[in-house]
Amino acid sequence: xxxxxxxxxxxxxxxxxxxxxxxxxxxxxxxxxxxxxxxxxxxxxxxxxxxxxxxxxxxxxxxxxxxxxxxxxxxxxxxxxxxxxxxxxxxxxxxxxxxxxxxxxxxxxxxxxxxxxxxxxxxxxxxxxxxxxxxxxxxxxxxxxxxxxxxxxxxxxxxxxxxxxxxxxxxxxxxxxxxxxxxxxxxxxxxxxxxxxxxxxxxxxxxxxxxxxxxxxxxxxxxxxxxxxxxxxxxxxxxxxxxxxxxxxxxxxxxxxxxxxxxxxxxxxxxxxxxxxxxxxxxxxxxxxxxxxxxxxxxxxxxxxxxxxxxxxxxxxxxxxxxxxxxxxxxxxxxxxxxxxxxxxxxxxxxxxxxxxxxxxxxxxxxxxxxxxxxxxxxxxxxxxxxxxxxxxxxxxxxxxxxxxxxxxxxxxxxxxxxxxxxxxxxxxxxxxxxxxxxxxxxxxxxxxxxxxxxxxxxxxxxxxxxxxxxxxxxxxxxxxxxxxxxxxxxx
Length: 492
What we know:
Distance between the termini: 83 Å
Membrane topology: Multi-pass membrane protein
Structural class: mainly alpha
Transmembrane segments: 37-57, 63-81, 141-160, 172-193, 199-224, 236-255, 267-284, 305-323, 351-370, 390-407, 413-430, 461-488
Number of helices: 18
Main location: membrane
Family: Belongs to the inorganic phosphate transporter (PiT) (TC 2.A.20) family.
GO molecular function, one term: phosphate transmembrane transporter activity
């Protein structure tokens, strides 16, 4: 074969460069198209929700108002799915117990189920518990206030998601409702007692989530991870932890879901939870034993036993989140529909099924379209998680959210879940510091400052950034909501 001439070689090099540029251009186009497609699908969903609302309510006075409110309710639900659901699935993904696609599918199913089965009580708190409809004499003013709250919270949440900040959607909507209520009828319109309880829960819930997660991790470390025979300890305790999770879920489902068809007391629901927990413990004892038979007595192998309960607890947390946070999307929408159709603003706010469906589907679509970014942040960038640590985070968050939702209190699942992540991380720091102190005391030397700094296992930049976002959300959305309320008044 004849050798290629220098001219031909240069031509081939030029062709390779051109093909490389084309491939690079195609990759860049694909990267641009993905968010564009997601935004396009989100816009279509919002339009469909508005048209569906028009079809349900029919032609009549207030139809346009309900259509606009339904569109913004759908917009809010999308943003909740994009931002808040990361706290449920982030630990499981960060611990490699779930793939991103598997997490998205599980979360979408259980978020929808939780919203539709058990979301009504908290919707009532958001729609009428913060600003009473009776406090605003003119229904038109009340509708304008709820619309301003929806728009303000949606815009801020969208911006926070774009910035990569896992803010509290509950903070956003409560701040929006409060700001619009004050602008509409003064400070007397706000039910400060209810708001005080909600505000207290914002402080209590992350502390509870962090403490429960740290206690669970301390228990697992002492009785399983640090045991001389780790596999034997795991066979004893892992089924019990699974039973605890299953019993909690059963009690909550009975209290919230079955109450719609039967009168079930707290005692009955707890007894049912105890029964389900014992059954789950009995079922998983042989399963965990079989899984552990082929494992070595090593910490690395031990973590695999927590993958299945971690997945189950993440699903449980998604159900609880759907029940609790659907209120943030459709609470104001339910109040607007009530105000349009009811002559008496003081009546209890009914929750139409189509309103709940907008919230449930919107959360799921928002998760699928925009959720992966913050899922990675929560699961991988705050502190290092493995299956055991992530399970502690998920179970502690689930227990806290379920307790709050059973009381009809719209606590922030963001605070609870991230409190659990921080709790696990700070507990690990404390434990490492304690062990190093004991070891150095035996050696007769103190712990060096640089060694203390090296053992910081929680990224402080995320602690400060997330904390700042939590602080600014309520006043910012309240101010924005008040401005939007006044702007709507000027336009109309």
